[in-house]
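User: Here's a structure from my thesis project, written as structure tokens. My advisor, Dr. K., wants to see whether a designed sequence matches the one we expressed. Can you design one independently, without my sequence as a hint?
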């Protein structure tokens, strides 16, 4: 074992601990996965889906990218969604962002970073839709935190507008979308009130979630 031996040692220790706690753990894990949740989150290494939700391996299907963006031309994300919805029959799609997101900050401040600028353009579109609100906030920290929230809410809208979700709802498949955000400073998840389970309620739910975020920042 020539490279990164510490990781293999840690892996062996973890596997031993899991077997000690549950001798049948890996036998069960090797079977078909049957998660109830699809997690669309940020690639940030500080936001591991399983750990922060207390879920075991096999209980959450995960897609991660920079700043938890859902783009209708992103075949990677759409393929994950299709497998989760059509094959695994997940009942919940959770878009989870986090405060202190570097991708959101870069989109907010606009420095030239290279190739990633094309990806951050999607978040800048969110920024531009809420430019007057963000400009009214008293400082950069508030603007950053607020845009982290607004980005999550807008990405839930994007999830709802995919044909994958629309078709699932048309066939009455149980599927609820959620907008969550995670605090690096306290380890707690917050519901941004963007949950919806049918096409007819998406616009009103998203509008209310945006209004709630705006109200909270403008009254503090």
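Assistant: Designed independently from the structure alone:
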């Amino acid at each position: 074992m020539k490279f990164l031996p510490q990781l293999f040692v840690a892996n062996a220790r973890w596997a031993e601990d899991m077997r000690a706690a549950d001798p049948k753990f890996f036998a069960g894990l090797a079977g078909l996965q049957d998660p109830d949740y699809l997690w669309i989150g940020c690639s940030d290494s500080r936001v591991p889906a399983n750990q922060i939700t207390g879920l075991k391996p096999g209980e959450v299907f995960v897609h991660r990218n920079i700043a938890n963006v859902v783009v209708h031309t992103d075949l990677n994300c759409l393929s994950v969604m299709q497998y989760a919805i059509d094959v695994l029959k997940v009942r919940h799609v959770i878009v989870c962002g986090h405060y202190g997101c570097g991708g959101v900050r870069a989109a907010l401040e606009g420095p030239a970073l290279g190739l990633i600028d094309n990806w951050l353009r999607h978040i800048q579109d969110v920024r531009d839709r809420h430019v007057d609100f963000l400009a009214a906030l008293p400082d950069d920290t508030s603007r950053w935190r607020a845009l982290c929230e607004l980005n999550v809410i807008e990405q839930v809208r994007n999830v709802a507008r995919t044909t994958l979700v629309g078709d699932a709802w048309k066939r009455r498949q149980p599927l609820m979308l959620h907008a969550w955000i995670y605090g690096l400073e306290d380890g707690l998840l917050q519901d941004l009130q963007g949950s919806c389970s049918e096409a007819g309620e998406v616009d009103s739910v998203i509008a209310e979630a945006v209004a709630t975020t705006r109200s909270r920042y403008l009254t503090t």
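When you compare it with your expressed construct, this may help: The beta strands are 37-42, 60-65, 92-98, 176-182, 189-191.
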